[in-house]
User: What shape does this take?
Amino acid sequence: MERTLVVLKPDTVQRALMGEIIMRFERAGLKVVGMKMMQPDHTHYEHHYETIGKVKTRRGEDVFRKNMEFMMRGPVLAMTLEGVEAVDLVDKMVGETEPKSSFPGTIRGDYAHMSYGHADQRQIGIPNIVHASSTREEAQEEIYHWFNDNELFEYQTVHETHTF
Assistant: This one.
């Protein structure tokens, strides 16, 4: 089984969409093995978005700053999900990073619509509902940045009993 990190961003929490998003992952056969609500500080996000994700390196200081400001607007819900090819499945379910480019049926396509252009015009980070690990390697680093070993659980679901 593979694990991946998903963070429901401040816009998801503030719009009271957490339950709907979690339900979509569970209905797809993914298992929640860790979950916690938190409001990380700047240092935590800097490690997540630059040390691991290289956002500043890849996209520049301005994008990094806007993203950091957006993420610090409120609490987030961090989850570790487990399942068959979990990283790829979550990536497919979440949709494109730019909500406007996400297809209907994806999480971003159904719950967000903003374009990069509109966010840039308003000088804000793009509210795109969710962060999801991009690769297996990134998922492993991110999970252990957000969770301690004692916060991740092993158990079997009914779904696993009947399908694996």
User: Anything to note?
Assistant: DSSP finds ten helices and four strands in the chain. The domain at 2-147 is CATH 3.30.70.141 (Alpha-Beta Plaits).
